[in-house]
Amino acid sequence: MQMMSSEHLTCGWLQQLLVVLLKLCLAFAGPLRPLNRTECTAKGPASYILVFTGHWSPQAFPKQYPLFRPPAQWSKLIAVSHNRHFRLWEEGAPASAGVQNFAELGVTVELMKAAKEARKKRVVGAMYRTAGIPNGIGHSSTELIVQPRTSLLSLMVKVIPSPDWFVGVNGLNLCDGSQWKQEVTVDLQPYDAGTDSGFTFSSPNFPTLPQENITKITSQMPNHPANSFYYPRLKELPPIASIRITQQSRSPDHQTSVSNHILPNSISPQRFSVTPLDCEVSLWSSWGLCLGPCSRGGVRHRTRYILLRPANAGTPCPELEEQAECIPHSCMKPQ
To answer: Shortest CA distance to 200 belongs to which of 168, 236, 241, 165?
Structure first.
């Protein structure tokens, strides 16, 4: 009887110890949180209309604005619905071969192949495309059918012409817990894929070796006057494009009339940005020869030339020629 009582006391003591340890762990860990914050528990799929709008105008982006061969335009839009185990592209990470080909050449073969392989693993839900836009300002759209298990959306559109620049979103969640979002609007900024070192829209092919990570292009970075997006007067670039994703009510005979179409140009962007472009001039040349009669002294000249003409009420160009008095060499007395 004494042995049984001893075993019973030991088991009770261990149970109390485990309870105390569990309370301590919970106290330090804080409240329990879901393992996957992006998990969507909505009932059933959602239908959306995605509208891409280009705001790339010579008023908003006057520096080196492409007018021909080719003029400013947008490639087709590539979009993928997926879960947290898939990445179409990611800032701060190297571009995949598919992203490189799309950002440099607008070719979608490898990008879509990777998405199709991921779809077999059930980490990608669906893939979408819209037609390209032949101007810097314009719209295109497509319908999205998004499932709860793949509620994230990533997309890319190439900037044409450019070395390897694109706009896009990475892992935009269209679901908020158990509810689908009604409307999402995102302003888009340009990104550099890190595979071509060209500085301007029309730069020749100049592979980046070794390859660099994907980075956002800003008004200050790359910090070089030759860069097409370098606007040192601006704290940030105006949006070069935007997307609006709006939920649609669906019925059995619902059909969309705007899927994968370019919307009419009569639908103009809601806002316009005007970016002042300051004049840029070269350094002064060396002083020329001192010319003139000895009785009145001589004059010498130096010049500089315009690198970039001002636009949109930017700072005007300074004087391009300067003169100064001097003593002609023929008038100098030997010492």
So the answer is: 165
* 29 assigned to some structural domain: no
Give the long-range contacts of residues 199-205, CB within 8 A, separation 24 or more.
Answer: 199/163, 199/224, 199/226, 199/227, 199/228, 200/64, 200/226, 200/227, 200/228, 201/64, 201/66, 201/72, 201/159, 201/161, 201/162, 201/228, 202/64, 202/66, 202/69, 202/161, 203/163, 205/104, 205/163
Distances (CA, A) of 159 to 77, 149, 224, 275, 333: 11, 31, 20, 19, 65
Burial class (CB in 10 A: 0-12, 13-18, 19+), 156: buried
The answer to whether position 272 is within a domain reads no
Domain that holds residue 125: 46-263
In the listed set 263, 290, 307, which residue is the last one of a domain according to the structure? 263
pTM given for the model: 0.73
Same domain, 254 and 289: no
Side-chain half-sphere CA neighbours of 29 within 13 A: 9
**Domain assignment of residue 189, yes or no:** yes
pLDDT along the chain (335 residues), means of 10: 49 63 50 52 95 95 92 97 96 97 96 94 95 95 96 98 98 96 97 96 93 97 92 92 92 45 46 73 88 82 84 82 84 57
* CATH number assigned to the domain comprising residue 301: 2.20.100
Does residue 74 contact residue 141 with C-beta atoms inside 8 Å? no
Residues 306 and 165 in one domain: no
Residue 23 is assigned to a structural domain of this protein: no
Are residue 241 and residue 300 in the same domain, yes or no?
Answer: no
Q: How many domains does the chain have?
A: 2
